[in-house]
């Protein structure tokens, strides 16, 4: 059985078009994580706060980020997919974040093959409501977990997102490969 983190390339044209391996689904409270030892998507926990994921969420294969995990990605979708789904996605923004004292940035992307997002190329193409909902989710989703604190630190452009992806690809080669 193949390992989606180590066997799948980062994308067909990384860092401009990447593969997002979906773990958590839009509209749900279940926190799934890809377990490379299984390998497969397993239920990590149910979110303690009464919030739900604002869009599908997962990781980029063959990446390793500053928080010592595969690099996180949120793909804006109209309808949820399923855990383990692989979406060709186009990075459009980077949300800077601190998760309990660790740098835990998130790539925000759109499906490359969804015509509803053809016009979305950069941070400025996202509505203020979209970025506010994403930030609100990540600022509050751990509130009821003992001792956990998160803070969003601002938004950056698609160029910052692709630079961060390149950084995560380099870290993967140095630390994992």
Automatic annotation (TrEMBL):
Binding-site positions, Mg(2+) 2: 72
Position of the signal peptide: none
EC number: 3.6.1.1
Residue numbers binding Mg(2+) 1: 67, 72, 104
Domain of life: Archaea
Protein localization: Cytoplasm
Function: Catalyzes the hydrolysis of inorganic pyrophosphate (PPi) forming two phosphate ions.
Family: Belongs to the PPase family.
Protein name: Inorganic pyrophosphatase
Source organism: Haloquadratum walsbyi (strain DSM 16790 / HBSQ001)
């Amino acid at each position: 059985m193949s390992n989606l983190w180590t066997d799948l390339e980062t994308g067909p044209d990384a860092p401009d078009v990447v593969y997002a391996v979906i773990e958590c689904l839009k509209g749900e409270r279940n926190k799934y994580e890809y377990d490379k030892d299984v390998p497969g998507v397993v239920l990590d926990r149910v979110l303690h706060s009464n919030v739900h994921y604002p869009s599908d969420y997962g990781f980029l294969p063959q990446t390793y980020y500053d928080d010592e995990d595969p690099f996180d990605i949120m793909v804006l979708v109209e309808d949820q997919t399923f855990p383990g789904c692989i979406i060709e996605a186009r990075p459009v923004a980077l949300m800077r974040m601190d998760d309990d004292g660790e740098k835990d940035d998130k790539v925000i992307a759109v499906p490359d093959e969804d015509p509803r997002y053809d016009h979305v190329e950069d941070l400025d193409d996202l509505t203020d409501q979209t970025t506010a909902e994403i930030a609100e989710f990540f600022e509050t989703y751990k509130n009821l977990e003992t001792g956990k604190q998160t803070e969003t630190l601002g938004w950056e452009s698609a160029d910052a997102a692709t630079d961060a992806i390149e950084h995560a690809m380099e870290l993967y080669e140095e630390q994992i490969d």
